[in-house]
Design a protein that fits this description.
alpha/beta; TIM Barrel; 5-stranded parallel β-sheet; 3-stranded parallel β-sheet; 10 strands; globular
Amino acid sequence: MAQPERLFELGLGPFCRGCPWQQTCGAAETAHACRGWGPQAPGGVEVLHPGLPITASYMAEIGGPGFDDIAAAAVPARNLPAYLPRIRYRRGLRGQLTEPIYSISIEDALTRRGIRSVDEIRDFVGLDEHQGLVLLMFGRDRVLERVWSERDTLPGEIAQAGYLDVVAPSYSTWSPRPRTEFLYMAKRSLVMFALLQNAGARAIPRLAWEIPHDVKRWARWLQSNPSVEQVALDLATYRKKSDFSAQLKGLALLDELTERRLSYVINGVSTYPRIMQLYDAVSPRRVSLTNARAIARPAEGQERTFSEKCATERQLIGRARASTSGSTLQAERRATVQTMPKSHVPMTTGGIPLAPLRRLASPTKSSRPQA
């Protein structure tokens, strides 16, 4: 997220002057500003580029890239476990599921006929009536595009299916792509969060960022919607060390700007060094980790049961929490005392309380072409 030092300041990107989304974007004078694009560029010609007339219609269907038209209902932080194991829709898991709460991906919950209910999943995999499920709307692009194309009906089905929580879709924000593509994907996830809430689901917003400006926009929205106490991040695709570190810098900034009041559901962090990095960025007391390690195919000669793999993950996370929780907690307490506002009125990142926002109306029906 931090940009390397340059001998000369970057000027406006070639498409920034006159761009209707320039102020919201915030990348006009950075390396992330939109450049030329063509068939050989990542994602090809179907990405949303400011030079394409169709981009404006996609932005219109989500109400523009700004967040201020989304007013959240309450999202009280649920006390999720430090490790939230993910299951598959597999009968072979029967007899191995002893945790009070598990997570499941939208890829395992969505069928041709619609969303699977929690009761259906319980009967198939061997959960009892007291064990809960969190639905993670993380998956392949084609599955998430189907979710978007069925947004008029699917949120209602999900709300009636019995999930404890529903994490909003993790629409792909690959890099490099034009900023307009990122802005569309980030807002589209927030639109789905609003539609899920409006349908009665206990939804958790999924956040994404590329540059500090994105983090500040999220912080402003969160401080304008103080009833949102829990958010989600999907860090599974940040393979490079520099990309992962940049995401954690953004997380630390968000946590500071929101006065360290949020709890986090974070997907995709699975190695001990990365877990330690994450806990250095935000207190482990407010983080619930989920990943696909326990359901991944084992390497040859390393056959282990699902419950054995869950135990390994839990031990790994517990060791990291024990190593960092004391120092992180002390630092958090000091920072809270130093930054505690004199008033309990929620502040925006600009220090000015915002007027109440109107609740989102369902956008016009449209389907995003497959990139």
